[in-house]
Amino acid sequence: MTNRKDDHIQFALNYQAPYNSFDDMELIHHSLPEYDLQDIDLSTHFAGQDFEFPFYINAMTGGSEKGRSVNRKLAYIAQATGILMVTGSYSAALKGKDVSSYPSLNDFPNLLLAGNIGIDKPYSAGLQTITELQPLFLQLHLNAMQELLMPEGERQFRSWRTTLADYAAKSPVPIVLKEVGFGMDKQTIETARALGINTFDISGRGGTSFAYIENQRSTKNRSYLNEWGQTTVQTLLNIQSLTDKVEILASGGVRHPLDMIKALVLGARAVGLSRTVLELAEQYSSSQVIAIINSWKEDLRLIMCALNCRTVPELKSVDYLLHGQLLTQKKAELGLKPRH
């Protein structure tokens, strides 16, 4: 029997999303910048921390030998480039299995490290995760559709809100509530905010599809749910009224610095990458990936300069156009019929 975590890695690499919402968003160029390239500041702040760069390696894997190999390479890359890395779900380690498959500050003392655990795990499990990993913050992931499609998945969800309130009240580190690729709706954010959560990774459709992954593992024919959920850009558009009230992080289908900037324009404090970085780690040496990530920093600066924005918060003032599906959805929200 193959390891479920290894299946996730393989299926994630095999899956090709049929649509990426970032392609339906166009930024308005500014012809007369006020700043020199060296003036551009990429720093950002969320989850109680200042970060030098507005992108990070998002939660992916752990709990297997393959996961250990991937995580050690990613941790080395993250430490070398000074970007944050979030571990995959710590659930396997909580069972006493494959603890070494997760990056450790003992091995990577300068790593900016955050942890991840499922909301189905009680606060005591979260506290153990925090104690063992010593993370800057803890992601609490929401994966209802994945659990429903997973043959061995969770079937009881009634306690999730109580568990979330428990984490919010007791955790010694900030809690980031994270979707896993289906897009987080406005009502969920408002409900969680009322429970004490202030930082949200909305993780929309367009990147890794856990519906597809679990359908590949299942004997049931539910492939019609492979594209369940809202895209990353649509999710960000849906929650515009909340971006000044809570801290929004964006992930899901982010491929390169232009996608990152688009997410920041729509109010994200920072952008998470999973599959894109996983592909790089699979295809290139650590030194090559480090060079690519460092080049992204320069690309972010040049795009910001072309938008006449010196800081990440200033990006929220950038004008943009919507095309294709995003424009159709926007017109539908306004009660207008799309023109043919």
UniProtKB/TrEMBL annotation:
It is an enzyme of class 5 (isomerase). Its cofactor is NADPH; Mg(2+); FMN. It catalyses: isopentenyl diphosphate = dimethylallyl diphosphate. Residues 158-317 form the FMN-dependent dehydrogenase domain. Its EC number is 5.3.3.2. GO terms for biological process: isoprenoid biosynthetic process. FMN binds at residues 59-61, 89, 116, 178, 203, 208, 253-255, 274-275. Mg(2+) binds at residue 147. One of its GO terms (molecular function) is oxidoreductase activity. Its main location: cytoplasm. The keyword Transport does not apply. Signal peptide: none annotated. Involved in the biosynthesis of isoprenoids. Catalyzes the 1,3-allylic rearrangement of the homoallylic substrate isopentenyl (IPP) to its allylic isomer, dimethylallyl diphosphate (DMAPP). Homooctamer. Dimer of tetramers. HAMAP family: Idi_2. This is Isopentenyl-diphosphate delta-isomerase. The lineage of its organism: Bacteria, Bacillati, Bacillota, Bacilli, Lactobacillales. The gene is fni.
